Structure formats: C-alpha cells, structure tokens
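BUG: 3D viewer hangs when loading the predicted structure for this chain

Environment: internal workstation, default settings.
Expected: structure renders.
Actual: progress bar stalls at 90%.

Input used:
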Amino acid sequence: MTNDVQTISSYYESKLPAYLEMLRQMVAINSFTDNPEGVNKLGELTVDFFQELNFNHRYVRCENPNFGKHLVFQSPKFNVNNSTIALISHLDTVFSAEDELENDFQWRVSGERIYGPGTEDIKGGTVMILMVLEGLKKFHPRIFDSVNWKIFLNAAEERLSPDFGRLCNDMLPEDTKACLVFEAGTINKNGSTLVVSRKGRATFDVKVEGRAAHAGGSHERGANAIVQMAHTIQTIAAFTDYAKEITFNPGRFEGGTVVNRVPHYAEAEVEMRAFDSEIFNEGIVKMLALNGKSQVASQDGYACKVSIEITEQTPPWAPNASTQELFKLWSETAGSLGMNTIEEARGGLSDGNWTWERYPTLDGLGPTGANPHCSERSPDGSKDQEYVLVPSFVPKALLNTTAILKLVENI
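Structure tokens produced before the viewer hung:
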C-alpha cells in the first residue's frame, strides 16, 4: 500500500464503529416497502447522517401513493465543466413489522456477522456510500469538488418502481460518467464480487374462464377452469430452459369457489426472468401465444378461454462494453491493493437495470453479506437470517474510494 492508501484505510478503521452505529439506527426502522411512514422516517435519518457532506437534498413522491418518497442528494453547486457520477441505493426492505416480530429478526451481532433487516440489502450499501464520499472529501478535497455528485435512494426498489428509473434518467446529464450501485457483494472465497449484468423480469396475469355446473347433477355441462389452468401452467413451466438461462415461475394460483361446483374461473401469476434480451423477448412471445389455447371443454363443446397479459416488465441488464470498462478499472485497482475481484451475473434485479443502457453502470459495490430477503432461522442452521460481514466494510470502501479516484483522474 502507498502511504495515502494506508492513511485512508486507517481512517475508515477508526470510524467504523460510528458507521456501524449509523447502520444500527437504520436497521431499527422498519422500512418495508408497504410501510411508507417507515421508509420516509429512514429517509429523514439518512439526511441527518449525510449532512456533513453539505449536499442539497430533496424528496420526490413515488408515483404509487402507497409507497414512500424517493430521496435525492446532489453537490451544492452544479458545474457544467465537472463530470457527473451517480451513487445509487434504496430505502425499502422486504420485511414487514409482523415478519420481523414473528422471527425475532432484529439487530444482532454474532462474531463477524451483523444480522438484521436491511443489513445486507441495502442499508449497509447506503452506509458504504457515506464512507466513500467522506473519505474522498477528507483526503482528496480537490478531486471531490471536481465532480457533480448525485445520490439516488429509491423508496420502492423491492417493487421495481419504474418511476425511479425515469427520475434518474431525467436528473442525470447524458454524459454521466458512471452509475455506481451499492447492492451487496456476495460471499466468494476467491475475492470481491462485482455485478456486471442482471436478469430482466416480466410478470404475467393468466386467467381462465370456464363454465360452472353442478358437480353432481350436471358435471358434464361444466368446463373446469382449474383443470384448464393445470394444462396451461404445465405448458408455461416447460418453457424454462436452463441452458438459455430463462426461467418461468408460476408463483400464485387461485380458482373456484366451492367443492360441489365445477369451477368457472382460475387465475395465476407467472414470473419470467432471462439475461439475454433476445431470449427475454422470445419468452414474452411464447407466453402471449398461449392466449386462446384450450384443452378443456364441456361435453357439449363449451371450451375454456385462456387469456394472458403482461403486468410488469423490466428489461435485462445485458453484458456491455461500458460496464466492462468500469469492471476493468475496479479489478485493476483491486489488484494494486492486493485484492481480487470476480464478475457476477446476478439473477435478481436492481436499479442498475434502469440505468445501464444510458450510462456506464457497475453494481455490487456494497459490503459483503448473505441470505438477502430471509428473516427465518432454524436451530440446525439450515435456515439463517440476512446478515452483513463487518470485516468487509473497510476493504470494500477502500477499493471503491481508490477506484473512483482513478475514474475521476481518467475523465
């Protein structure tokens, strides 16, 4: 290490207890997406923690009135001659207050692990943003002041809020140099993982209209919507092709009313995910081609009616040259620090899915953790709650800080 790197690393080590105390306070706030009061309370706390950066901030209402407010920070003075770098995290988690209480899921320190809702996804990532910016401001104020910084915190990332993507695109200039997403890194014994691509996701509403009949007296007149749905769901599930990395998941089903009636309706929700844009679009075509396809009819020829429509669509973040350039910079920086980085293509989505086509985007820049979205634990260890690794904070902050310095110097 150079003296400069050693100094920054020592600074982060000395301040780590304070940063972890910030994380503890953030984790104590339930910020379930469907709890807008909690999401907004976390936003206010985040403003307090970031105040020493002297950034301007503003709240932006989510288009869905049931969700909280997005939070945006930016450098106090925009300079057209400066380059723009965006740092992205989110405020919401997937855990309801009832879920946290039922599973006794709260801040808990166990050796090198800190358990709790959002420790890994993604409150630890928000703390990482603060660490990096404070380090840059303290040790490289000239470089810090030469960048138009923008921090975007999504109020509804776990619900794939598309208006947040539009917000980023509206507020970022076309020549933005990087969108850096602070989702957590995953545990890998060979080094730090950085996310360079993510699957896209489409959801579908599948409906079957049948014809009701008395299950005992006139069964033959009925067109059983549940039986038809079973045919349709089997067809959809068979579209999954692991070789092409596309999956179809029928995730919810309901149908019928009472057992002595041939069911006249059934409904299911299906999720599709894929990395490749062409394969993704082919999957949508396959799903919509099932409209009108029926295998079940009454004895007098009344056929069930199948209808399928897209309810949500988030495009894949495909492998691309600009992301690879950022990964190369982070990887070379890691090597200079005696670290190693590993490319990761991740099945889950992030806000990087909204930014990569317009701006160079890199993800996985938060601290390392495991078991995201899991609140359960079992005595035999087969189920464990979400946690973040304390020893990952300082090395990852040092890597991000040093790589950003190189990025700015190369602009």
